[in-house]
Specification:
258 residues, alpha/beta, five-stranded parallel beta sheet, two-stranded antiparallel sheet, 8 helices, globular
């Protein structure tokens, strides 16, 4: 039999076998949305059309570069909104990917409390774009994930802030875990008031001996912020350690909180 005919036959048979296997896999293990678990086509990018739409609705928008809360660009004075204009903002820049609601909220909760870290593959690129557009990516020397206490780190199995920082990392930008949480505290979302949140994290962070923050521009990385108390306390500790500037990059800001 002609060699070319044999090769064509084998190629066609292989494609048909691959197609049958693909069909069988779709039947036995149908693709589902990573958020709502509804059935989807494999070429939907891992989320259903509704969740893609819901995610896009929570991303972007104008926000205050001091606290991250959504505000019209016409409501900004000296790079601050009216809500934080008179407050001391210890960090030097702020960027966010979106606000903590809808599909974005579901995805972040899924990562944090249901171990669905695969959802970071959707959030990471969006977060990277927000960081690049924040105005301080090129000024940043070190990425610093907001740390978990070792007890919570063991319970959860990972620090989602560290995983998010990896999406911002490049050849000239390293991640440092020299900021540590030295006191176990309740979750910030369990606190009812801003003053309780501030007291909850006061003195909860420190830097390791031999750190490299002196004279460096540092970017704190976190998944969610509510009152900003944790970020302010981390920023204070980093500046006491000699950081020349401290920026903040978060995936989501909880609207409606101060």
């Amino acid at each position: 039999m002609n060699r070319a005919i044999v090769q064509s036959f084998l190629q066609t048979a292989g494609q048909q076998t691959k197609g049958l296997w693909h069909t069988a896999c779709q039947f036995l293990w149908p693709a589902v949305c990573g958020v709502c678990l509804s059935a989807i086509e494999e070429d939907n990018g891992g989320l259903c059309r509704g969740c893609w739409q819901g995610l896009s609705e929570t991303l972007g928008g104008d926000y205050c570069r001091g606290c991250g809360k959504g505000v019209s660009r016409y409501g900004i004075v000296q790079n601050r909104c009216g809500g934080c204009l008179e407050e001391e903002v210890i960090y030097d820049g702020f960027c966010r990917a979106g606000f903590y609601d809808g599909v974005l909220k579901q995805m972040l909760l899924g990562v944090k409390f249901r171990d669905k870290i695969e959802l970071l593959d959707y959030l990471g690129p969006v977060f990277g774009q927000a960081f690049a557009a924040g105005g301080f990516a090129e000024k940043t020397d070190i990425l610093v994930p907001v740390p978990l206490h070792w007890r919570r780190r063991i319970q959860r199995g990972f620090n989602q802030s560290f995983l998010l920082a990896q999406y911002l990392q490049n050849e000239g930008l390293r991640i440092s875990e020299d900021l540590v949480r030295i006191r176990y505290t309740p979750h910030q979302w369990q606190m009812e008031t801003d003053s309780q949140r501030r007291r909850n994290v006061m003195g909860a962070f420190a830097v390791r001996k031999g750190h490299h923050f002196e004279g460096k521009s540092v970017c704190l990385v976190d998944d969610i912020t509510t009152s900003g108390a944790t970020l302010r306390e981390c920023s204070r500790v980093l500046k006491q350690a000699g950081a020349a500037a401290v920026y903040v990059a978060v995936v989501a800001v909880a609207e409606g909180t101060n």
